[in-house]
Amino acid sequence: MALCCSNDYNILRRSPTLYTQDSAQETAPTQIFLNSKLFNWVKPCTNKKKSLHFSPLTHRKSSRFRCSSYYQSSGYTITLRIRLLFFAMDDPFERSISSRPSKKALTTSNHLRHVESLATLPSGAGRISKLNAVILGESLASEEDDLVFPSGDFSRQAHVPSPQKYLDMYKMSIEDPAGFWSDIASQFYWKQRWGQPVYSENLDIRKGRIKIEWFKGGMTNICYNCLDRNIESGNGEKTALFWEGNEPGEDGNLTYNQLLQRVCQLANYLKHIGVKKGDAVVIYLPMLMELPIAMLACARIGAVHSVVFAGFSAESLAQRIMDCKPKVVITCNAVRRGSKIIYLKDIVDAALADSAQNGFAVDVCLTYENCSALEKVKTKWQEGRDTWWQDVVTKYPTTCDVEWVDAEDPLFLLYTSGSTGKPKGVLHTTGGYMVYTATTFKYAFDYKPSDIYWCTADCGWITGHSYVTYGPLLNAATVVVFEGAPNYPDSGRCWDIVDKYKVSIFYTAPTLVRSLMREGDEYVTRYSRKSLRILGSVGEPINPSAWRWFYNLVGDSRCPISDTWWQTETGGFMITPLPGAWPQKPGSATFPFFGVQPVIVDEKGVEIEGECSGYLCVKSSWPGAFRTLYGDHERYETTYFSAFPGYYFSGDGCSRDKDGYHWLTGRVDDVINVSGHRIGTAEVESALVSHPQCAEAAVVGVEHEVKGQGIYAFVTLVEGVPYSEDLRKSLVLTVRNQIGAFAAPDKIHWAPGLPKTRSGKIMRRILRKIASRQLDELGDTSTLADPSVVDQLIALADS
Ligand code: 6R9
Predict the structure, then answer these.
(1) DSSP string covering 152-212, please?
(2) Is 669 an annotated catalytic residue?
(3) Ligand 1 mean position to 566 CA, how many Å?
(4) N- or C-end of the chain: fewer Cβ atoms within 10 A?
(5) CA–CA separation, 153 and 131 (whole Å)
(6) Which residues approach ligand 1 with their CB closer than 6 A?
(7) DSSP letters along 208-245, please?
(8) Reduced DSSP (H G I as helix, E B as strand, rest coil) percent helix, strand, coil of the chain, to 5
(9) Buried b / exposed e along 268-280 (16+ C-beta atoms within 10 A)
(10) Residue 609's CB: how many other CB atoms inside 10 A?
(11) CATH homologous superfamily for 221-425+448-485?
(12) Cβ(169)–Cβ(181) under 8 Å?
């Protein structure tokens, strides 16, 4: 073993790698401890420099190496002075290190077989060439480890145990989509099998109307497939939902049998009040079990649910109600979030009043009494319109006939932000969505019947539709539904829940990972987390350092991370690791799911092969794709299919490395991704300009340490209005009231004028540079109508 010397090492940190200036030879990986944290020592980068892994693995104590001093100089350079105190060859811990395969062994044994089988990757992706890898569970994922291989044990039990298996299945899915997806669809219950062709599509705007259809003519019901079918196959007494309330100790659960009964009661009630197939139902609920129950009840009777995230304001809710015109709105009186109480019914009341004033009155507001947050008697009430859930729904029978619907009948509408102020009603249909969410869930999380699955997303977003409700329940999974806040009562809550329910698959957003990371490792290490076997990430690119923390600390270097790239529009995962098959690269979503053909195009819409960067598009349809924007097929065609004719355009930028791995780089349109939530800059701008003292506003996204992106607003005030702190607060409040707290600007930057071209177009590029203080990268400002505006903005930057 190397490093058997007692030396001082001067290590210069040039983020992200540490280099030693020493040239001592080293042959195999070994480990050292700095301040009792374990670090890996890896092979030298060059003969002059050595690199040192800088990620703590565990807090195991060892006296093998000790750090003698540690100090930081200015800027990015950290100097570490390490004294290797002693080195005992017969140390038992040392034996365990020595018995690990050396780098050489890694590259020549079974791992090389993985690598060689990747000779041909999908979509011109290239091949894996780097072998600088570690094995899951045996070592750290560090800056140096480009590839993190699944362990042999993990792969052996996985649905897709090797890249070769993936490639075989992927090839089949692309060469014969009809056959591939029909085989899978046959595993579900269809009252009547679909006709021919299995799918038909036109994604090329030059050839006429955009159309996507899968399994048309097939009659089915997604609620039946989630519940009745699983009960018939013997899962009736299996837990379907574990519910964990805001307060620790507040919990509940439902078996598949009980869930079906609850769904049927609500379905019967909805039918009784006149809700029919095709009618819209708006659901504005927090993460109570009643939320998935309401979604499933709508699906059972063929009604189209539209869940509105219960963090949206009354105005946003009203806007959605007026767009889809529901027969009924389902809500609850209040909810506790951390130590706060949010009076949801008051928000609904305001939204319904607004909608009624604008010509659309909702007949029924079904209200669940959430007694842990607010008593019935204290809830404001409109007789005739409002009904207590507990008073009526429980009186209905616990069985309810299924409404068989066509595979292409709508299942739900979900509003999402676009580049105009008006949200888009993304419409998903039944059959393709069902087959796609179930299949993606099974493979990307390598789901097994004994798993306990927890996704921290709210059902108000697509992740809560596809991967809290439909995908898992279609697989007869046991799902944890959490109502509270992940940092309440403290930052260890997630891991407390993981231990309590023995969660084995944990799926969350990078923003949560980053915020917990800041709170310190002890909140994590306090809990066992032994049950975890797979971690998941969604909503935005996961930065490699958050990936490593998630992987090394939360997952104890044992759980693969499925970094799933997808969108409200795609219905399910599009680019995702298959955890048993792929070596992972921290921060990369890896490769396309079966049936998905991602392409990267340049600004002219020309496909780029191999290693490249550009706009991420998709060629050909997949079963889970959205079919239209509700009531606005033209907007569907122009937003998604016109920029690059022949393709679906995702709105995201992407690069592909020489090994074919996909790296998502964020939105390229006027959409900001704040904590994994999509917010259109135009929505925030229109909220700001509705303030009587705001003349004009321009909003851009800036990097934010926890939220991924923050909202940065340039505001021009009405002539003569002075800048003030109160006005700043009042502008932020206007956005909170009009959209929701999650859309509140992080920064208001006073702007006497905005940088505009002579034709009046705001040059956001310049605003983005000012917002991120990259003042030396402003570029050419000479085409501006008034270039002096830029200097004024810079002068006011920190005011
Ligand atoms: C599922 C969801 C979609 C946008 C998407 C992209 C970003 C989602 C990501 C990711 C990088 C991932 N996004 N997952 N970026 N890596 N794994 O979040 O849907 O709310 O519609 O947002 O989120 O920018 O375009 P949605």
Answers:
(1) HHHHHHSSS-SHHHHHHHHHHHHH-HHHHHHHHHTTS--SB---SSSEEEE--GGGSS-EE
(2) yes
(3) 5
(4) C
(5) 20
(6) 416, 461-463, 537-541, 563-568, 589, 650-652, 664, 666-667, 673, 676, 678
(7) SS-EEEESTT-EE-HHHHHTHHHIIIIITTSEEEEEE-
(8) 30, 25, 45
(9) bbbbeeebeeebb
(10) 12
(11) ANL, N-terminal domain (3.40.50.12780)
(12) no
Identify the three-state secondary structure at position 303. coil
Given 496, 499, 632, 669, the catalytic residue: 669
Amino acid at 430: T
Mean pLDDT per 10-residue interval, the chain, length 799 residues:
26 27 31 36 32 31 28 28 27 27 32 39 50 52 70 92 90 96 98 98 98 98 98 98 96 98 98 98 98 98 97 95 97 92 96 97 97 92 97 98 98 90 93 98 98 97 98 98 94 98 97 91 97 96 91 94 98 97 90 96 92 94 98 97 97 90 90 90 91 93 93 94 96 95 95 86 89 88 86 89
For CA atoms 519, 521, 527, 531, give the dihedral sign.
positive
**Which sequence spans correspond to the domains of the chain?**
3-163, 221-425+448-485, 675-795
Bridge partners of 429, per DSSP, are: 410
- The CA distance from 716 to 747, in Å, is 14
Cα distance between residue 153 and residue 549, in whole Å: 23
CA atoms within 13 A on the CB side of 548: 20
What is this structure's pTM? 0.82
Query: CATH number of the domain at 675-795, out of 2.120.10.30, 2.40.160.10, 3.30.70.1350, 3.30.300.30?
Result: 3.30.300.30
221-425+448-485 and 675-795 share one fold: no
